[in-house]
Amino acid sequence: MQAFIIAMFGIFLMIFILMPCYLSLKRRGRNKKLSLFVKGATTFVAVILSYWGYWKAMTSQITYHLPSSFFSRSVLIGLTICLFADVLLGIQVYIGGILFFLGHIAYIVYFIELGGFPIICIPMISIFTGIALCYFYRFSVRLGKEKYFYFLYGLTIFTTLSLGLTLPVTIGIWGFPIALASVLIVVSDVLLARNTLYKETSLSDTVALLYYFSGQLLLALTIYLSSHYAF
Q1: Are 70 and 38 in contact (CB under 8 A)?
Q2: 29 in the Ramachandran plot: left (φ > 0), alpha (ψ -120 to 50) or beta?
Q3: I need a surface site. Which of 30, 64, 76, 163 has the fewest CB within 10 A?
Q4: Which residues lie closer than 8 Å to 93 by C-beta, 6 or more apart?
Q5: Structure confidence by residue, pLDDT tens digits, 159-216
């Protein structure tokens, strides 16, 4: 019960307190340092929960018939990198983008550790990437040489998505929240790209951030709750 209460508190703090505070500060355009601090603090909640779950699992040797790699350090590395990326994206876009790319690489490693690399992921990656190319092709001239970096990043996030979607089949019930987390995180990246290249509105910005923070939080809660409860 205590673990469930802590999880609910984390959700409330991250989604209903810190994220609205960050959005408010961002839209006012004042005190950028405070805005970035609040943004980092939002992701930090997810990072703390994931490390807490990892520590609990390692010290109590809880498995609950989960894959041996379920409490891998790769997911912790991914969440930690994204924490720094959240802050640095507002200071230096390219550095933040590179860190997010590395964060997805860590998630890919984690997903492969969990469920391997099912052959079906290859057509899934191709389809997702093809759809994105069709949509974003109109911006290729404006992007210039940067379009190659966008393509590489897109290929990476769609690999994350494809691997995540196969986890319910490969590892069972605990694969569902991880799959949903991968969907939320990747969709938030696509929305962010659209907002950057096309047109950002208050609603689209809010939705992109909500999806992103929810995805990070769901991934962290999966680690945290699975170290306390057996289903």
Answers
A1: no
A2: left
A3: 30
A4: none
A5: 999 999 999 999 988 899 999 999 999 999 999 988 888 777 888 889 999 999 999 9
